[in-house]
Amino acid sequence: MFFGTDKLPEMVRSFSRGMNQMKSATTELQKEIQSSAAEIQRDINAAGALDDLKEGAENLQKRIMEGASLEETEPIAEEPKAEENNPLTPDESLKREG
């Protein structure tokens, strides 16, 4: 060996400490990632609820517009024209009065 037998136990302890520190850091990183993922999932769920509200509003607007277009196609009773009420045209009525 390159280091000798007297240094071997110290090297193994150092290696073990390094591995434990790496394992601890990995566990901490996993917890942080899981926490972030849970937060993102909550945001997605909230956005999904918002999307549902938007979709409902769009459907309502569409139904209103469809109702408006149906009203536009229905025949509307027209008010009688002034000419229909008075058989004389305005020029004729002036001639008769004068």
Please provide the ordered H/E string of secondary-structure elements: HHH
Number of strands: 0
Cα radius of gyration in angstroms: 43 Å
Q: Structurally, how many domains make up the residues?
A: 1
The number of helices is 3
Structural class: mainly alpha
Tell me roughly what share of residues is in helical segments: over 70%
Classify the beta-strand content into a percent band. under 5%
Shape verdict: rod-shaped
Low-pLDDT windows of residues = none
Helix-strand layout with pairing:
Blueprint: H1 8-73, H2 82-85, H3 90-97
Q: How is this structure best described in words?
A:
With 98 residues, the protein is an all-alpha fold. 80% of the residues lie in helices and 0% in strands. It contains three helices and no strands.
Quick overview of this protein structure:
Helix content is 80%, strand content 0%.
List keywords for this structure.
98 residues; mainly alpha; 3 helices
